[in-house]
Amino acid sequence: MKRRIEEVLERTLAAARREGKLGSSTNEPVSVEVPKDREHGDIASNLALTMARSERKSPRAIAEILREHLDDPEGWITSSEVAGPGFLNLRLSPGFWRSELARLSAEPALGVVSEEAGKRAQVEFVSANPTGPLTVGHGRNAVLGDTVARLLSTAGYAVEREYYFNNAGRQMKVLGASVRARYLEEIGRPSEFPEDGYQGDYIRDIARSLRHEHGESLADHEGNAFRAAAESAIFAEIRRTQERLGIVFDHYFNEDSLYASGAIERVVAALDERGLVDRREGAVWLVGEKVGLEKDRVLVKGTGEPAYRLPDIAYHEDKLARGFDLIVDVLGADHISQHRDVAAALVALGHDISTIRAVIYQFVTLTRHGEQVKMSTRRAEYVTLDELLDEVGVDAARFFFLCRKSDSHLEFDLDLARKRSTDNPVFYVQYAHARISNLFAEAGRQGVAVPEGPANASLLEPLGESEEFELIGQIALYAETVALAARELEPHRIVFYLQELAASLHRYYNRHRILGDEAPERVTARLVLLHVVQRTIAAGLGILGVSAPDRM
RNA sequence: GCGCCCGUAGCUCAGCGGAUCAGAGCAUCGGACUUCGGAUCCGAGGGUCGCAGGUUCGAAUCCUGCCGGGCGCGCCA
User: Fold this and answer.
1) What is the three-class DSSP state of A243?
2) What is the Cα–Cα distance from A79 to A98, expressed in whole angstroms?
3) A146: in domain
4) CA distances from A67 to A43, A104, A212, A231, A269 (A)
5) DSSP letter assigned to residue A333
6) What is the CA A364 to C1' B66 distance in angstroms?
7) Among A65, A101, A139, A547, whose Cα sits 20 to 30 Å from the Cα of A317?
8) Three-state secondary structure call for residue A34
């Protein structure tokens, strides 16, 4: 929609220049905006303001010249005015809006262009080690990552979802020891629970099932057997939770493979060759000063084991080597500095890291009855993601996780998410979809056909209400909203867009009766409009991974 | 102390590649149904955009400093 008006202005600018009313030296980018305030027209341009300096004329004077030269052979613009400091405010004609709707009705993708077609993207997310059930925090990560992946697909990328994990480190040893202690308790043997062991009930559950399976025969086994059992049980849970959310990974990447392939040693050797490491106090350090970091960082601990960041560097080298056009890391705010270390090391090793982008999210707090739900990972007092899904459902969970900019803290209101009423934004949007389905069902009962294919502009002639043009304007913005959200990796933009579209629909629905109009052509035209609106809502919800129900 | 993020209406948050800009939802108050589901809609009140400087013709938006909150600053992951 914007593009079509921008073309009008580009021609206008050229015409004014030909006539010598404006200088021809510069090549101004023409852009238009949809004003928030209806008073400012359907569409507006600040072109005169941006040109003021090079033209050495007042913005208002330039705007006036543009206004007089408007090159609009199709009659899209019904009125124009110069406003404020020099904006050109335009009102668009019914014919323009009808042609927009006709265009959209014929577009399966609603105007979304696969700008990045042919490119490959990878999104790495969740990446929790299998030491316990996924928490609410993981939930934000999971839903963000999956939705970013969906957005990138929409933009044309071939997307791979990857989960990176380590089932070999110290944490896993502690896990094994924790399960072993609980197992011994179960069979009535003396046991000592590890100081920093995992307290959660799920450890007892695993221990109990081990007893059911093996009786007391494991009593003399070391932690390893318990660790392996715990890992597979916990991983199965993690996958099940993800599946509930509609998330399926293409690859699970085990950190172990980086040891097996020698990749980790090669990273140390390469850094060493470049003189970027220091050996002291029994450890191998990455020298901060030489790679642009504030402090030195340990790569290999005194025990000979790599610190977390070393395999992470090797992992990112591996990702880079796989030739993706875009690599997205979804991580919590507590991992930012870690990520910076990795980036610094990669640059120092001569890699181009411009394809790597991070989506960083702040923490989630839960509120119930207006009070914050206290959580402590240490004492295993936290709400698991599964419990959250049990309580509010998948649709509400996904929608709520996405309804804030990832950079903002997210206050998740459990009471609101569970409500089946208008206050709940998920239901508000879903209801708009269901409402249209319901209307179509009613039309069917009345023997009125719902036109689903492309509609030509003449069929849409009966559309004339301002709410109808407002709705068309909304759906015409869908494509660019999706494009922007994909480019910026910002799913929340879709959430806000859908809330506004739903509001426009409800407003329209409330003010105008669709069926029962004495003019059948008007009924048909309105059904065409509603059908495209419904497709748009369904497509937007689809990107969020939220269902678009026909009845609620 | 240093780094990153945040600070916008009573609450939760958009807007922040400068410009007709002070916005949405919730909450509060007041309205609209012989209805295609009122699970909706309409209206009202409410904010020196944390504070102070600076850049600019123009700043919620860019820069600097300060204040307040979160997260890091591990030979944990």
Assistant:
1) helix
2) 17
3) no
4) 14, 29, 83, 70, 67
5) G
6) 29
7) A139
8) coil
- Give the domain-ending residue among A210, A244, A278: A244
Tell me which protein residue sits closest to nucleotide B36, measuring alpha carbon to C1': A439
Strand B positions within 7 A of protein Cβ atoms: 2-6, 12-16, 19-21, 23-27, 32, 36-42, 57-58, 70-77
Q: Say what the pLDDT of residue A378 is.
A: 60
CA of A498 to C1' of B70 (A): 29
In a domain, A289, yes or no: no
Q: What pLDDT does A240 receive?
A: 96
For residue A240, being part of any structural domain is answered with: yes
Distance A10 CA to B19 C1' (A): 20
By residue range, what is the domain housing residue A446? 425-544
Q: Is residue A103 in a domain?
A: no
* Tally of domains in chain A: 3
Q: What is the pLDDT of residue A119?
A: 96
Collect the ranges in chain A with pLDDT lower than 70: 24-28, 376-381
Q: Which nucleotide is nearest to A439 (CA to C1')?
A: B36
Q: Which helix H or strand E contains A160, and what residues bound it?
A: strand A158-165
Distance from the Cα of residue A169 to its chain's centroid: 31
Q: Is residue A283 a contact partner of residue A301, using CB atoms and an 8 Å limit? A: yes
Q: Quick one: which of A15, A14, A4, A13 has its CA closest to A88?
A: A13
Both structure tokens of A338: 């870690």
The answer to whether residues A87 and A178 belong to one domain is no
| Residue A538 belongs to domain with CATH number | 1.10.730.10
- Residue A15: the pLDDT is 87
Q: What is the DSSP letter of A376?
A: B
For residue A136, give Cα distances in angstroms to A249, A364, A377, A384, A387.
19, 7, 11, 6, 9
Final residue of a domain: which of A65, A92, A119? A92
Predicted pLDDT at A497 = 95
> What is the pLDDT, as a whole number, of residue A27?
65
A442, A537: one domain: yes
